[in-house]
Amino acid sequence: MNQTAEAQTELQRLLRELRKGTRIISLSGVTSISAKSYVLTTLQNEVKKTFVVVTDSNNELEVFENDISFFNSQFTIHNSQLSILPSFEIDIYSSISPHAETLERRALALWNLTISQPSFLLISAKSLLTKILSPTETKNLGANLQRDKDFPPESLIEKLESCGYVREEPLKNVGEFSVRGGIIDVWSPDAENPVRIEFFGDTVDSIREFNAETQLSIQQLKEISLAPMREFSANSQDFKDWSFFAKERFADERFARNLKDRTQFAVEGESFAGWEFLISLVKPRTSSIFDYLQDCILVIDEPTNIEHHLGEFYENIARRFAETDERDEIGLEPRELFLSAEELREKLSKLQRLELRALGSSASKIDEEFAV
Fold first, then answer.
1. Alpha-carbon distance 361 to 350, whole Å?
2. Mean per-residue pLDDT, 91-120
3. Based on C-alpha coordinates, what's the Rg of the chain?
């Protein structure tokens, strides 16, 4: 049997197992991400379920994205959608806010999941256990506007600011908005161009897509969806509320100095460095990515590596919280921000899994035949 025939035989075996509903399916001997991507796109285009590909860290996400997009382009009869949910690769007890690009990508991925299920969701392991808002709360972060329908401009401005948009006059980049009388320009992270929304009182009078450089209109729109720039909202009142509850939560005198570093801003309704990992004190995160997934297949890339990585993460996060407390600094407990190992195992057990392992020889022909 030649290499192509052996590879196709292995693919057919995987397809039979997936359709049969086998709980855990293993594929070993595929070492390159390009070969893995070929296998996954081939299978997904047959079973038509969302494939949730879990990687060890953010580093592999972009490689999978490029390769899966390449192979999916070969399946012209299937309209594929791909979302990426990176993890926060910073120390949550360091009083540092996440990078803006990470916030934007996470927010857009979660927002899109409330609208439709993609062909592929690429997610780093830590994002599996990160607690987030519920799908309903995430959907309400953005805004949907229709021509000739009411949407008070003041409410739109407040919503944009609370979900991460920045006011700039004039607007120049994604994630910015500007206000001139009854006109609001805004550039959603999922849009190629910004839109100009004109109001007549509280009524949306017109919506026009325009070129940010030339300011020339491109087309009239009947409606527009504006995605959030971050996965949680926080306005001035939220920070004031946080200041009140934080003083109660961290009432011990030993926290006074560190607490004041935050409350001096929060009491004025202003944000502070690292607030993203403290705001759930007043806006609890009770969901996880599992609440966003419907009919899906979980694909674990190198399960041994991921298990080791998450084991180290749980140990490190517990150690960092203890160190933070010992230094008389404030911080929320890991259980308030992440699923426990037991909770994660329980949720994983409910999903059909395809495990990809480099060690082994059963799929080596796929590596040789389809690596690009």
1. 29
2. 95
3. 23
pLDDT at residue 8, as a whole number: 83
Residue 195: strand pairing partners: 186, 209
SS3 state of residue 66:
helix
Spatial separation of the C-alpha atoms in residues 287 and 132, rounded to whole Å: 5
Sheet with 120-124: strands ordered across: 24-28, 352-357, 296-301, 50-55, 120-124, 82-85
Phi first, then psi, for residue 97 (nearest 5°) are: -80, 150
The pTM (predicted TM-score) of the whole model is 0.91
Nearest residue to 120 (alpha-carbon basis) of 201, 54, 212? 54
Write the DSSP assignment of 111-166 as a string of letters: HHHHH---SEEEEEHHHHHB-B--HHHHHTTSEEEETTSB--HHHHHHHHHHTT-E
Tell me how far the alpha carbon of residue 33 is from its chain's centroid. Answer: 22
Could you read off the pLDDT of 129-172 as tens digits, one per residue? Answer: 999 999 999 999 999 999 999 999 999 999 999 999 999 999 99
Q: What DSSP line would sit under 200-235, residue for residue?
A: ETTEEEEEEEE-TTT--EEEEESEEEE--SSSS---
In this prediction, residues 315-327 reach a mean pLDDT of: 97
Give me the half-sphere count of Cα atoms (radius 13 Å) on the Cβ side of residue 236.
Answer: 4
Using DSSP's 3-state secondary structure scheme, residue 6 falls into helix
Q: What are 344's two structure tokens? A: 């994660």
